[in-house]
Write a structure and sequence with these properties.
Helix 2 crosses helix 3. This protein is about 35% helix and about 10% strand. By secondary structure, the chain is of the alpha/beta class. The protein has 2 domains: about 250 residues, no CATH class; about 70 residues, Orthogonal Bundle (Arc Repressor Mutant, subunit A). It contains 12 helices and 8 strands.
Length: about 325
Amino acid sequence: MAEEPKKTWQWVTVDDYEKPAVPTVIKVKKWWGKFIRWITPEQEQESEDDQSSALELSFDDAADALEQCFSEWLEDDEDNSLRWIIAPPHSGVEEAVKKWAEKHSLREMNLPDREPLCDPGDSTLPEFLSKSDDNKPWILPQLAHGFLRQTNGLRWVREFFSTVLSGEAGKGVIVCDSWAWAFLEKVWPVPVSQLWTLQGLDQRALEELGLARGDGRLRALAALSRGNAGVAAAYSDRYQRSSEKPFETPSMPSEINDATAFVCYALLLHRGLNKGQLVKVLPIISGSQLEIQLQVLHQRGLIELEQELWYVTARGYPVVRELLASRGFWLDRF
């Protein structure tokens, strides 16, 4: 019997997640120069479509794949277990889960206001939804926005873990950024089951999505993106059919110091912060130095300001991740 073709979008448990088996990001530029000598892609005249900017991906198929994965659990009225979904930055996991949740009209649990989380007198606690008649699960859209890494900023998330893991909150779906999850696993070191994510995109998947063509280009894109759909899409405009140019990644400032790394890590850990929140979680950095770091990183294309929050960009993500790895920061597993 012929083996069933591998699907582009697959939901797997975190333990079954696989990164593309390709060279590490830090070696890609040097590696590129070696393999282009034996790659001879067909020379074609590029069309206007080939010259377009980065491709915008649709995650409708990923949402449909989640439907198949969770349908039995969703329809089982007797099953009050939880489903945890880990979302690497720019991976499309949040977008796919949102589409799936909207299709089923899942009730969204409110996140706390981040601003007072660090105040000693703040007594904000998770407000869980009452059980619905049809036993539909509730959903928390982003657990990373439920804490600030500061002495008083973890009370809400600790109470959240205590309640949901005891079974008191009932059937629910929790989405959490992968960097936040790597940290929270240490804050509340109680193993959880049913931890899911989107499988990393390999060369075949990247080709099916139209993000690159040619074995060499596909291998390089898989290496740079680590199988992350959003990162691959952000670089897709750099890979036309006849291109033999290396990736043009954003560069770090010429003078990198501890403040640079701390700012980048804080933004990933919390899945975006405004300047005031950065001040709270990075009290060792002066206000003026923090402003300088934000502006320099922004000018380099490594971070961006969106709806008053600073985020690491999709194009900047591989560069920032390598910086943090080189400085011994605790990384996510993706």
